[in-house]
Amino acid sequence: MIITVTANPSIDRALRLDSALLRGEVQPVHPGADEAGGKGANVAKALVAAAVPTVAVILADDTDPYRALLRTTGTPIVASPAGAPVRVNLTITEPDGTTTKLNAPGQVAPSAMDALRRTILDLLDGGPGSSATASQQASAGPLVVLSGSLPVGAGDDWYATLLPDLAGRGARIAVDTSGAPLAAVLNAATSDVRLAVIKPNGDELSDAMIATGIDPHCATGAEIEADPALARRTVATLMAARPGIEAVLLTLGARGALLVTAPGADGIPSAWLASPPPTVVASTVGAGDSSLAGWIIAERGGADHATRLATAVAYGSAAAALPGSTPPTPDLADPARVSVTQL
């Protein structure tokens, strides 16, 4: 089964402009429908659309409108009470596809994070809430996806402190976060606490390399994303310093993505570079989440690393061509249109 964790969900409200954003001016907008957002929820929606058995664990109260929004997508959910309303994020899209996101921080009490931890572990233990995944128990071992920011009050190390409990229950772990939470996760990645995959972009990777002290003089995110050789070297340096990481899926924006896997018997990491198919961008919101979902879909299907990367890029590109954070369906994501080269 796949368990996605959304500790900081959001109601995503999309606004589309007929012209470029003019700071300090009054402009008309075309409002879209509110969507249930948050990176973990976005991953779950894409997986469910591909018929991959998934449950989305969310932090939201019983009466919060977020829960009803997520249910409309057909995504199975297990909710843990937040004690506060789910935040509302605004997405502004200009005619050329430029997307501006205004994200609220979200805030919860530490007790809510403790309850969320128990909810996740109960699912893995077959306790309360596990009936939502009863049909999934015969599938491949559990994969827990820790995705997105953490709310104020959670503590930057919340993901990191959860890792040993997940690993102790035999779960494989995927991580897509940034800033201090990502640095804490990387510092916790050891031979005993392994990460199946992490999915940073260039800026997130650069910031993490500096924050962890792995490379205090790391290149900028823009430099990393523009130079595949530099990107590969940077990821290889990370994986050498943190051997608990099995794979890094580094998204490169419009340039595609790089997948680097742990060193083999020769001690050298393997790497593949993928270029996306031509895409008319409607919204980049959720594209990275769909990329991670694509990797998971291929990984769950037993695909080789090149196919996992191609599927990730196909899903990310398909998501970028859709409005808002709409997840792509499998018919819209064609890995055969992605060019993959082994480096």
Characteristic key phrases:
343 residues; alpha/beta; six-stranded parallel β-sheet; five-stranded mixed β-sheet; 15 strands; 34% helix; 20% strand
Which structural class best describes the helix and strand composition? alpha/beta
How many H/I helices?
10
Tell me the β content: 15-25%
> Compute the gyration radius: what is it?
19 Å
The poorly predicted ranges are 128-139
Tally of extended strands?
Answer: 15
Strand order of the largest sheet: 6-5-1-9-10-11
Architecture overview:
This protein is α/β, with parallel strands linked by helices and 343 residues long. 34% of the residues lie in helices and 20% in strands. The chain has a 6-stranded parallel sheet with strand order 6-5-1-9-10-11, with helices on both faces. Strands 2, 3, 4, 7 and 8 form a 5-stranded mixed sheet that branches. A 4-stranded antiparallel sheet has the order 12-13-14-15, with helices on both faces. A hairpin with an 8-residue loop joins β13 and β14. The two termini are 32 Å apart. 48% of the residues are buried.
In short:
This protein is α/β, with parallel strands linked by helices and 343 residues long. It contains ten helices and 15 strands.
Question: How are the elements arranged and paired?
Answer:
Elements: E1 2-6, E2 10-16, E3 30-31, E4 35-37, H1 39-49, E5 54-59, H2 65-71, E6 77-80, E7 87-93, E8 99-102, H3 110-125, E9 143-147, H4 158-168, E10 172-176, H5 179-188, E11 197-198, H6 202-211, H7 221-226, H8 228-241, E12 247-251, E13 257-261, E14 270-275, H9 287-300, H10 305-320, E15 339-342
Parallel strand pairs: 1-5, 1-9, 2-7, 5-6, 9-10, 10-11
Antiparallel strand pairs: 2-3, 2-4, 7-8, 12-13, 13-14, 14-15
Helix pairs in contact: 1-9, 3-4, 4-5, 5-6, 6-8, 9-10
